[in-house]
Amino acid sequence: MEASDGPLALPTAAFDASSCLELAAQLTAAAAEAPSALPGRVPAAYALGLLRRVERLLKAEPTVVQVHPPAGAEVVVAGDLHGQFHDLLTIFAQVGYPDAGRLYVFDGDFVDRGCWGLEIVLLLAALKAAAPRGVCLVRGNHESKYCSWVYGFRAEVMVKYGATDAKQGELGAEGGLGRRSGKADSVLRCRPGTLAPSFPAAARAAQMLPLAAVVAGNTLVLHGGLPRAPPRRATRRSLPEDELTLALLADIAAASKGGDDPEPDSREQRLAVDVLWSDPCAQPGVTAGARPGDVGVLFGPDATEAFLRDNGLSLVLRGHEGPDARTLRPDMPSIDGGWSLDHDTPCGRLYTVFSAPDYPQFGQPRYGNLGAVAVLAGPRYDEPRFVQFEAAARPPAQSFMPTEETEADLEAAEECLGGSRFGDMSGKPANGPEQQLAAAVAASRMTRRMAAGRQQRRRQQARQQHR
C-alpha cells in the first residue's frame, strides 16, 4: 500500500488490517525523509492515542501470557529488532502479516541502537490493537528507562516529536544529533523541563509488557533467560547469595512485570531482571552475574534440562544476544545466521533468535549477520523452523545514540531519570519528601549502572582490539 497524502487520523473504532497497512505505509515514507517529517504523516496525537490504547491492553495481560493457536495456525517468534524497521517489514514480506492463520510473538528489544525504534513501536502497537490475541509483545531489557536513555530511544522520540527545551541548533538542520553544532550528545544531555508526552506514553506501555509467553503449553518465549528462584529472605540492603536454583514457571507467572526500570537489588523486581538479562552458557550450573552488578544469571544445559522437566515444557526460545555478544563468548555457538541452538537436552532444547540483520546499524564492527524468525506449527508447537533473511536496504540516517558518556551525562541522568525533573515517567515532577527520596535513590542506582555499562563497553573494546 502506498502512503496517502496528509497526516493519519486515529481510527475512532478498533484498528483493523487496513489501518495497520496504512500506518505501515506512512511510517515507511517517513523513514525515508528527515526525522522531523514523521509528525506530518503520523501526528503526535495519533501516536499518543495508539500508545494509550495498547497500554490498557497490556495492563490487562498477566506476566506470562498463554498463547493458544487455533487449529492449523502457525506461530512466528521474532527476536531482537533494535530499531531496524525495514527488517521488520522484510519479516512481514517473507512470512506474512498477522492473521487468523498466523500468530506472532515479538520477543522484546524493539528499540535502541537503530534509528527507527519509534516506527517499530507504533506499528507493533497497531498490530496488537487490531489483534490482541493474535499478537503477543514480550518485554526485553531495552524496554526500560535505563536502556532507552543510554542507547538512543528517548533521544529518537525527542527529535521526531519534539522536546520543549531542545534547541533546534543543537538538533541539527535535518533532525540529527547536533552534528553541525559539534555537540553530538546534546540531546542526551538535554534537560526536559516539560517532556514531550510521546516518550512517557511509550515508557508506560513498555512497563506493562508481559515477561514471557507460553505457546500451546509446550514452548516458553522470554527475552533473556531463566531466572533464579524468588528469594525467601531478603532485606533492602542485600539479597541472599545461596539461592542459585532456578524459578518455576509458576514463580514467573506470579512475579511483577518489573516496573519502569527493574532493579536487581529489589526483592520484587529481581526475577524480572533475571528474565530480561540472563544468558545460557556451556558450563553446568547456575551462576550469578551474567552482566556487571549482579545483573542476571548464567545457566548451563543441566539447568535448562531441569527447568523443562519440572515445568512440563519442551522448548525455550529467547533473544537478547546478537553477534557482538557471541564474539565475546567463543564457547557458545555463533548467531551469525540469525539463530543458534544453545542447549540440546533429553527434555528439550533452548534456542536464541536474533532478528536484526547486519547488526548494529551504527558503529564498528558491523557483523554482516543474517536475521531470522522461528516458525512453530501444530500440534505441539515445539519444533521451530527458522526463516532467515538479509538486511533490507536502509535510507541514509544518523544515530541517536550518544558517542560517549561524560560526567555531564551522568549528572543529566541523575536529574532527569531519578530527580525532580523527570518524576515517575508520567512527566510529572516528583513532589514530596517520599517521592524525592525515591527519586534520589533511583538516580544513584542509575549513575552506578551507567558507570558499570561504560566499564563493560571499554572491556569489550579492549578484548576486540586484543583479538
TrEMBL record:
Catalytic activity: O-phospho-L-threonyl-[protein] + H2O = L-threonyl-[protein] + phosphate
EC number of the protein: 3.1.3.16
Biased composition (Basic residues): 455-467
Domain Serine/threonine specific protein phosphatases, chain residue ranges per copy: 138-143
Matching PANTHER family: SERINE/THREONINE-PROTEIN PHOSPHATASE 5-RELATED, SERINE_THREONINE-PROTEIN PHOSPHATASE 7
Cofactor(s) essential for the protein: Mn(2+)
Chaperone listed as a keyword: no
Stored PROSITE patterns: SER_THR_PHOSPHATASE
UniProt xrefs under InterPro entries: Calcineurin-like_PHP, Metallo-depent_PP-like, PPP_phosphatase, Ser/Thr-sp_prot-phosphatase
Protein's name in the database: Serine/threonine-protein phosphatase
